[in-house]
Amino acid sequence: MTAEVSWPALVRCPGPGCGGPLKHRVPKDKGSALVCGRCHTLYPVLGQVPILVPEPAIYLAEHRDAVLAALAEAGEADLAAVSMVQALVAFAPKVAARPFSDDWVDSEAQGGLPPHPHLDADRPGHAGLATLLSAHAAHGLAARVQALYRPRPKGAVVELGCGAAPVLAPPPGVTHVVADLSLRAALTAASRSGAAGLVADAQALPFRPGRVSTLVALNLVDLLDDVGAFLDGAHHALARGGSLLVATPEPSLGLGDDEALQDVLQGAGFEISGVEDGVPWLRPHTERHLEVYLTQVVVARPA
Ligand SMILES: C[S@@+](CC[C@H](N)C(=O)[O-])C[C@H]1O[C@@H](n2cnc3c(N)ncnc32)[C@H](O)[C@@H]1O
Ligand SMILES: [Zn+2]
Predict the structure, then answer these.
(1) Each residue's pLDDT tens digit in the chain (303 positions)?
(2) 228 Cβ partners below 8 Å, 6+ apart?
């Protein structure tokens, strides 16, 4: 069971240069949708997840097989949803099929570290790794972000690029949204966390100005072509006094030194209120394959 959100109060049209208000529409026999009151673009809602990307029909055409598979996996491939996808794809230009940008390991989807039977803390060289694994629950990236999160009485909490493993547990009554460019990620994260799922592109955020109190983006900024577009959208979306929590294993953003992320944040009108560097992000692929990143976590607020 995922949370109900009043979408028209939280989001707006992500169409290029539009930003118009959205309202609910139930097209005949074709599932539910949000429609823009200004440019009239129809944004489908699939498995309770609105697809709020700038070109929803092209998104569906590119990812049609992945969308249908994700809906089936989530038990949401009803006739109305499938008809909606087919109807929009029928009017979209022909585009090459692409999979989602999903990037998660099984243990993240299952919500915990797997056992490590080949690790023996008494063996030379193993002790440090055993300590890292046991410390991760208390001091790893998810734990640090939870500790840095400050609940606010108003405004939505949004975890963007959530993958399968959203980290926050906002107090009851707070609108909690898990958003990703991948429908499969949004459906998986929503069912795991009980938050509301949303498909959105970080580079064209669909939030109404000032409606978000906390925006979390973990291990996402280094994947974006246009970090500036993301930060502009985040700046508009955040309420006065709201927070942006960003973590990345590549704070240089390919631009130079490790201060680059902080410089780009300041250039986009954010004030930095905290930086923790070297926060471990562990990705246990299997019992024998463990990936370790040392991330930089930056907390910022609109200046
Ligand atoms: C490396 S994973 C990080 C997942 C999770 N935040 C974590 O730290 O474990 C990156 C996620 O960002 C999503 N993503 C990639 N580009 C995106 C974009 N432009 N907008 C929103 N999400 C995006 C991917 O689908 C993927 O789920
Ligand atoms: Zn519009």
Answers:
(1) 567 789 999 999 999 999 999 999 876 666 799 999 999 999 999 999 999 999 999 999 999 999 999 999 999 999 999 999 999 999 899 999 999 988 888 878 777 776 777 888 888 888 888 888 888 888 899 999 999 999 998 999 999 999 998 999 999 999 999 999 999 999 999 999 999 999 999 999 999 999 999 999 999 999 999 999 999 999 999 999 999 999 999 999 988 899 999 999 999 999 999 999 999 999 888 888 889 999 999 999 999
(2) 264, 267, 268
- 130 and 34 assigned to the same domain: no
Is pTM, for the whole model, over 0.90?
yes
- Indicate if ligand 1 lies below 6 Å from the C-beta of 202: yes
Q: Is the CB of 220 under 6 A from ligand 1?
A: yes
The last residue of one of the domains, among 61, 90, 119, is 90
Asked if 271 and 303 count as a contact pair (C-beta separation under 8 A), the reply is yes
Instruction: Determine whether the shortest distance from the Cβ of 246 to ligand 1 is under 6 A.
Output: no
Q: Alpha-carbon distance 160 to 183, whole Å?
A: 12
Pocket-testing residue among 223, 226, 248, 282, ligand 1, by greatest number of atoms within 8 A of Cβ: 223
Nearest to 185 by CA among 92, 74, 287: 74
The residue range of the domain holding 24 is 7-90
Residue 268 sits in a domain of what CATH number? 3.40.50.150
CA 203 / ligand 2 centre spacing (Å):
16
153/281 same-domain check: yes
CB 245 within 8 A of CB 270: no
Amino acid residing at 285: H
